[in-house]
Amino acid sequence: MFALLLVLACNNPPPPPPPAPVEAPKPKDTPQSLLADEKFPEALEEAKKALTAKGDDADSWDVLEKAALRMGKAKDTLAQLPADTPIGGQTERYHLLRGKLALQAKNPAEALVSAAALQSVNPGDSAWLSLEAVALG
Fold this sequence. Notes:
The protein is an all-alpha fold. It has helices at residues 2-11, 31-36, 40-53, 58-70, 74-79, 91-104, 108-118, 123-136. Helix 6 (91-104) packs parallel to helix 8.
């Protein structure tokens, strides 16, 4: 009996090792993941792209605002967001962001431009921006 088991064991090679795990493809960086990784310039660009395609995407607006304000380059970021072309047609959010950036960049003239653009859609924030701009000088 032992001899039979020995013969059978010698005739059956060991099973092959299991295949190596295949790495799943890395998902494309999203504005949210870039913001979480503190890649603010990249998050800003991806959020702008997303908002150009779908202007009412609240998550992308949140990323755009947070990345723009956290980059620490308010003057440069403000220059990337011209007053006459709101992203995704969202005038209110766009000009409020521009106003906050203008205040951060200590640019009262641009803050007043954004305040004027907000006057008809959000008089409260328009007044706030105007007061902050005047306080800056």
